[in-house]
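FORM 7B: Structural annotation worksheet

SECTION A. Query
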Amino acid sequence: MGAEWPRLLAAAMLTRVILDFGSARMRATTVSIPDPGPLERYLPESGPSSAFLRRGEGFVALGEVARFETDRLEAADVWWDEISDQIDHDTEMLGEFGTGPIAVGTFTFDPDRSEERSVLTVPEIIIGRRGDMAWMTRLGTARRDDALPPRGEAVRKPVGISTSGGSMGDNVWTDVVAEVVGLIRQGGVHKVVLARDLIARAEEPLDLRHTLRALMASYPMTWAYLVDGMIGATPELLVRREGGLVTSRVLAGTVWSDDDDADPLRLATRLARSQKDISEHEFAVDSVAQALAPYCNAMNVPEAPSVLKLPNVMHLATDITGVVDSDASALTLAAALHPSAAVCGTPTHLALDIIAELESLDRGRYAGPVGWVDMQGDGEWAIALRGGHVRPESPNEIQLFAGAGIVADSSPERELAETGAKFVPMLQALGLTD
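SECTION B. Predicted structure
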C-alpha cells in the first residue's frame, strides 16, 4: 500500500469501533441448509439486521459482533482486512461466492461535506441463498449450531403516513437546475447530478421490513437493500467482484411514461435516440471505465448501451466487465469508482463543488455505496438510489431522495418530472401512491 498509509492512518483517527474483537480470535461456521424460504421473513422488527436481496437471492444478516464508523471507504477496507485475519472459519461450502463471514456497509456520498458517518458492520448470523444453494454462517458461537433462528414477527403497515416538502420547493429546485445548465454551457463542467428530497412521517415508528417486502414485490430486478436505516431498491450495481472477474452496471439517461406517451416501444426508441441522454450516459460510462482500468488486466466496454426497463422508468444501461488484479478487493474497487459521473457528474471535483454550493441538501449516504464484502475480498456494492434513510432519533420519519443528471440540453421542468418518477418506488412501498 506504500504511500497510501499516511492518508489511511489519518482517516482511521476519525473512526469509532464498537464491540471490537480486541486481541481474541473469532470462530465462524458455515453450513449448507435446506431452502429457508423467503429470506426477508427472518428479519426481526428491532435490533441490528440488514438485507441485500435480488430476485430472491442474496442474504439477510442478524446481530452485530463488530461495527466500524468512518469517513473513508479506504479506512473501512483496512479495518475489514484486520478483522478477517482474526476469524477462524470452518465451512462446508469452500469457494462458494458470498458464503462465510462478511462485512455489510453503507457509505456517505461526500464525506467531506456531510454530517453523516459511513458504517461497516460484521453480522453475527447470515442466512443466504444463491441459485439452488442455501447456507447459514454464525460468528462467535462456541459450538456448531445448525438451527435456523426463528422468523421475525408479523410486519406492520405504516399508520397515518403523509409527505411534506424537503430542503427546497419545486420552483426553487428548477431554478437551481437552470443555473447549473448555464454553468455547463459556459464550459468547464460537463455534467452535474442534482438531488432533491421529501420527508414522509407516520404516526408510529416505521417497520422497514414492510417497506422492503413491498419494494421486492414490485421491483424484483433491482437490488433491495436494508442497511443501518438505509432502505431502497436500486437498479445500479457499482461493482461486483467474484474471484478474478469484476462487473459494473452503469445507468444514466432516463425516460418514463407520461400523458404524452405511455407506449413502451416508443419510449425505448425515444430514449435510445435522445442525444441528451446518450451524452449523459457516455460521461458515466467513461468515468467508470477510467476508474476501473488501473485495477484490470483486461476490460470490455460495450460500444452502445442497452435499454433497461423497470416498472416506473427506463434507463440506458451499460455492463462493464473486466479481469481484476487479485489484490483489489470489492471495497477497494468501490472506493476507486465512487463517486461516478452517474451520481455526481464530470469532472468530479467541479461537480462536487457545484452540488455542495447549490443543492442545499446533505445527501448523507444517499448515492453512496451500499453492500457487502467477504473474507476473500469478493462482494457486491450497489449505489444507494431509489430509497431513503430512517435515523434512530426519528423512527417515525424517513427522508426520501431522488436525483437527475444535468447536461447542457437539460430542461428544468423535465428534470423535475424525472425526480418525481424516481420517487415512485418508495412512495408506493410506503403506501403513499398506487
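SECTION C. Observations
The longest strand covers residues 191-201. The radius of gyration is 21 Å.

SECTION D. Sign-off
Analyst initials: ____
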